[in-house]
Structures are given as C-alpha cells and as structure tokens.
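Schema walk-through. Below, the input block comes first and the output block second. Nothing else is stored per chain. Lengths vary across the set, and this one has 220 residues.
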Amino acid sequence: MTLVLAIEVAYAVILILGVAFFVFLIPRSHAAILGPLARELGREVEVSFLRFMAYVEFEHEGMDCLVGIKPAGRYAPPRLALEIAHRLDFSLLIYSRGLKPLATFDPGYFAFKTGDSSFDDNYLCKSRGGARAKEFMTEPGRAVLLDQFMRFGFASIKVEDGVVMALKPFHGLGSSRDGLNAYFRAHFFFRRPQGEITEDVNSARIKTYLDQMRRVFIAG
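--- output ---
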C-alpha cells in the first residue's frame, strides 16, 4: 500500500507541475514577447490566467483594442489574437480554408455561403442562425475587404458578444504536431523570439491589422 500511495502522490505532483507550467510559465513567456509592443504603446502587459493569455489593451482610432498571444493547442500553434470592441447584431465565424484547424467544434453554428464562389472557395462562414450575418457578408465590397485582411495570414475571425476577434498562427512558436514540445524547447530559457513573431508584434504592424479590421466591420 505504501508503494501504491507513493506512486499516486508522485503522479499528483507531476500533474500539478504540468498544470502550473501551462497556467503560469507559458503566459508569462508570452508576456515577455509582448513587452516591447507594450512599451511602444505606453501600456502594460497583463496576464490573465482565466483567459490563459498574455495581452495588451489600448485605444486606436477610437476603438478599444486588445492584442494577445494564445498558447498552442493540440491542433494549432500559438496564435496572435486581435480584438476590437464593436457590437454587431449577429454572431459570425470565418475560417480560412487553407489555415483552418484540423478539428473545430462550433455548437449551435451553421455554415452558409455568400454566393461569391471565389470567396466561398477560400473561406468557411458560420453563424448561429438568422439572415443578418449572411446579409452582412453579402454587402457590396465586404468580401473583398475581408479577403484583404485574411491575406495578412489570419486563420479565423469570430464576432460575438460585442467583440470581433481575429487569430493569426505563430508557427515559429510551435507546430500543430508537437505544440508544447516545440514551444518548450524554444522558450524554456525565455529567449527572445525572432522572425515572423517579432515582425508581427510591433505597433505599426498591429495598427495596420486593426485599421483593416475597422474597414471590414465598422467603416466598410
């Protein structure tokens, strides 16, 4: 019984340490990546363990905005998250077919087509029902503006509860195959990231993305 108890305790300790790594170390490492951006914007990096994300909040062109990093999942690498606060009277999901995660589960959402074959071939649209989302997507010029935004490398957009959120994969921080392992090897010592990551996480690039989001969902 003593050996069994020791094994159970060891397993519990390993599990707790694993959870602690996910909940505390990964968001804090991502906070280090966002640090230069926060300083450019004159803001502070916040770490939310409930949202499991490091992020920076700021105002741009009258919009309340958020930029953060979502950790890797089983089927996706870490992702740059952009949010703008803007209430629309519908829910909407848009996936780039070329960057769509291997598995998505969107309960209550139903796929629809815009009628623009060039757009529908490249993107999957879903809504919780009703015609308003489809009306929005079929307004003249909307698909063109959205395509221009997604071509920055974004994989998905979600419109819900007064927030428009866009996600862009950071393949340099991990991969869909080894996710955490790649991340751990690259960031255990909190080395400064290079390449596409630092190019994306700067105020000029972020503001370019936000301006295009505003054209699609607010001014378009």
